[in-house]
Every structure is written in C-alpha cells, then in structure tokens.
Amino acid sequence: MSKPSNAIRSSVPEKLFNAFNHLFFILAGITTLLPFVNLLAKSLSSESAVISGTVGLWPVGWQTGTYRYVLQNAMFLNAFQVSVLVTVVGTALSLAMTTITAYPLSKPRLRGRKWFLLLFIFTMLFSGGLIPTYLLMHNLGLVNSLPVLFLPAMVNVFNMLIIKNYFEGLPDSLEESAKLDGAGNIRILLYVVLPLSLPVLATIALFFAVAFWNDYFAPMIYITNPSLKPLQLYLKELLVASGGEFLKDNVDAALNTTPQSIQAASILLATVPILLVYPFLQKYFVKGVLIGSVKG
Amino acid sequence: MKRSTTLAAQTAPPRRPAGYFRKLRSDVFKEWDLYLLLVPGILFILLFKYTPMYGIIIAFKDFNIFDGYAGSPWVGWKHFEKLFHSADFVRVFRNTVIISLLKLVFLFPLPIIVALLLNELKNVIFKRSVQTIIYLPHFLSWVIVSGLFIDLLSTNGGLVNKALVAFGMEPVAFFLDSSVFRSVLVTSAGWKETGWSTIVYLAAFSTIDPQLYEAAKIDGAGRLKQVWHITLPGIAPIIVLMLILRLGNLLEAGTEQILVMYNPTVYNVSDVIGSYVYRMGLGNQDYSFTTAVGLFEAVISFALILSGNALSRKYLQRGIW
Known about the structure:
heterodimer; A: mainly alpha; about 70% helix; about 0% strand; B: mainly alpha; MetI-like fold; 2 domains; globular; UgpAE/MalFG_permease (chain B)
C-alpha cells in the first residue's frame, strides 16, 4: 500500500468498505428471507398462477383457501398435535432429568465424580449405532409409540454439561448457609439453586423444545403408524408426494389451489411455533452458548 | 443395592481399592440424596446408550431377530471382510468423505469471515437486525429447509431457475442432477448454519484486550492490519478448536440433511454412511452387516475425536471436553 498522509488515506477506503459491508449484510439478510417470501407468495396464489410458474415474491391471483384447507386437514392437525405433545412432555421431562443429573456432577466433593462424568461423556464420543439402538427399542416394545421420540433423548449430555458449568459458577456460600439451616441436597437444589438458574434453564428448555419440534430422524426410524406421525415426518411425506397422487386425490378441485401451495402453506404453518419462541430464544441462546463454551 | 455393596465390602479381602470404596460408601451414606439424584440419569444412559453398545456384538454374528443376541451364530470378521470388498461401501465411504470435505472447505471459513465483517458494523441496530435474521435458519428443521430449497430450485417457477433463464441459461433440475446435487447440499447447509456459527467467533472477539487495538492505532495500523495482527491471532485458538471438532465429525457428513434431501436419482453422489446404514439396515433388514458398517464409522470417529483432543491439549492447553 502507498504511504501518503494517513488520515486522508484511511477515510476514503474505509467509507467504501463500510458501504460494501452494509450492502453485503443487506444481501445476506435478503438471501435468508427470500425463500420464505417466495413460499408465502406461492401459498397465497391461485392454482393457474402456481402451475404456470409465474409466482415470484408477490402472490398472483390471491386466494386463502389453501390455508383453510390445511387447517382443516385431519392429517396435518393430527401431526401438529403429536408434535406439540412430544415437544411439551419431552421438554419437561428432559429438563428435569438433565438438571437433576447435572447438580450432583457440579459438586467437586462428589466422590467418583470423574468416573460418573466419564460415563456420560463417553456416550458423546462413541455410540452403539443405529441398528443396535433400533433393536433395543424394538425389544422394549417402544417402536411405534410416542415415548420413543423423547425417552432416549432425555439425558442430553451436551445440555447437561452446560447446566453443570452454570451450577459450578454459583457461589458455594449459598449452599453452606442453607445447610446450616438443616436443608438437604434436594431441598437446596429445589429452593436455592433452581431459582438462581432460571436463565440457563430457560436456554436449555428452549434448546430441547426446538430439538423435539424439529426432530425428523427418530420418527423416521421408529414411527410407521400414521396416527403417531409428528409434523416433520408428515411434512417430509408431503414434500415427496409433490404433484403426486397423494395430494391430488385429497384436494377439492373447486379449491383453486395446487399441491405446491399446500406444501408451502404447511411448511409455513409448521414454522410458526419456532417464530413464536424465537424472540425468547434470541434473548437466551447467546448466553447459553457462551456458558457452554466455558470449560468446567 | 446398598446391602450388596456392604456385603461385598465385608467379604472382600482387604485390597488397596477397598479404601476408596469404603470412603465412597461412607459418602453415599452421608449424602445419599446427592447420589440419589444421579440414579435416574445413570439408569437412562445405561439403558439407552450402553445397551446398544453391547448390541454391537451382532456385527460379529449372523443376527436374526428370532434367535436374538445370544442365539445367533458367531461369524467372526465375515461382515468386515464383506465390507472392505463391497463396491457399495467404497462408494458410500467416498461420498461421505467428499461431502464432509466440501462442507469443510467452503463452510468452515465462511462464518469466520462473516463474523469479522459483523464485527466491523458500527451501527448497533443494523448489526442486531442482521444477527436476528441470519441466526434464524439454524432453528428450522431440515425438512423445512429442504422444502424451502425444493421450492426455490424447482424447474417449475423456482426463483433460481427463473434467474438462470433470464440470463439466457438452461434451467437445472438441481435435485435430480448428480453433477450439482452436492452443491445443493453444501449451499443449503451453509444457508442454515453460517449465521449461527458466527456466534462462537463473535464471543471470542470480546475476549481480546481492547488496549491492543488502541496501541495498533497509535502505531498507524489500519483496520485490515488490525484484523490481521490482532483479531485473527486472538481468535486462532477457537478457530483451531472448531476445526478439530469438525474433523472429528468427518464421517458424519450430515446424515439427517441427506436423508431428507436425497432421492434415488442422486444416490450415486449423495449416499453416505449414515443413509446407507439406514436403508440397508432397516429397509433390507441386513442387521449384522450394517451394524459392522456403523461400528467401522464409530471407531474411526472415536479415534479422530481422541486424536483431536490430544492435539488440542498439546497445542491449546485445553481438552475438547
């Protein structure tokens, strides 16, 4: 680079850089949002417009019948209910289980702590694999049941370590003074530690909820019964059936919609719950990730 | 359980470890409630994680579901010999490594660059809005992302093909074309995770001492020089750590994404170990062979992670976990 007068030289390229940098992020933002806008436009466009492929970012031949159809579709509604049920029950149980496991492991005085931790961490590094796991579920009679969608995921070692690290950061004096008052470990956990740990618990609860809501792999492996299929599995089948008989048979010809619009509407409706929790997620997740990256 | 340990401790000859177990026993007795909290978690991982590890023995047997684990005959290394001579496996292994490496080469540097650029944004509201938008795709499922891309890349009115046609090019059937499908996998993975992956680097920036920048400014270093001489060296340990973690996942090329997005026309370029085990194992019920394939993957991944951890300890003075 050339030498002359520092102050002037740096300001012009810097302005240029700033302009390009802003432009870059505006483009990045558009790239992220564009697919949604396109999908929304498709879901609200008429049959002829979608079939002729003229829909871009704005609906052509406005209609809302697609949403009415999807929201009245028994399979969609059933899948939605299954997903809500699995997410709520799974998150509650997993959070409880992960927390009570993290607490003793956060105490350096726990004799054998190293070995217990190793027992848990080893499961992150090595696994029996898909087939032995499937056979186990089969032998337990869990295939084609809803518990199989959350029971195996309940002790999430990664989340457990985040909570454990958070517990380790709490001052010991709290526990000691509660002990002097005669409280046992479980009482201390419930009434002293947990109320102080709401941010990390909220983060982990949201992580669990998003993971359960988005899970496709477990239902794909274990669920074949149509009435037990959660939303992601239903959506995947809807996508595969694109333009196929599966939808054509089911769609009323008078509805002025297409399988593509139905897919679009279903995808967007399945995203709504994520969008609803996203503001909360955002508030907590950065903190959660940071806690996680601090080594215990 | 407590009784049996007591009994064992009484009858066992006094060896050295007994001292440890006696202390453990007295601790368990003193703080039984603390240990009690551990019981459900341990039972769960024993059942759901360690029992399948025992199930790996079927990789060395001709397993059939009627004879079960114990009844099925041992066959030694038969399935591993088959594996190393199977053209299918070679193809699947190749695909796995290629897709992983493509993702590594294109998607590993990207969040670092984006994080550096984000760091240069001085307008807080603009910066926060950008972050809000680019973090979002991380929270969508692969099924949803796949749906978005199927639509975006469709030959019937997909925006990308519209643009191609507008520039006078032929439309491309992205999901059915073996020559471009891997790029679809890499691009959609980048779209989903790049924004989110910046977080860890942004956090690392905040650990850099601001005085270094002040000093550099006084010495006349421009922004680029500051990035090169202060920011990058400052986050180098995190970059290396992330790289090590990625290498440990070399044989997990994104199974869930691929299972959601691929189809028989592109199996030749996108079938990876995970998807192959799923199709052959559960689809064809070739349990023993696919367990062998899974074990092969698990052992290599385990070795990679352990070496990564050793490297990390040696050069970064911290382990991965």
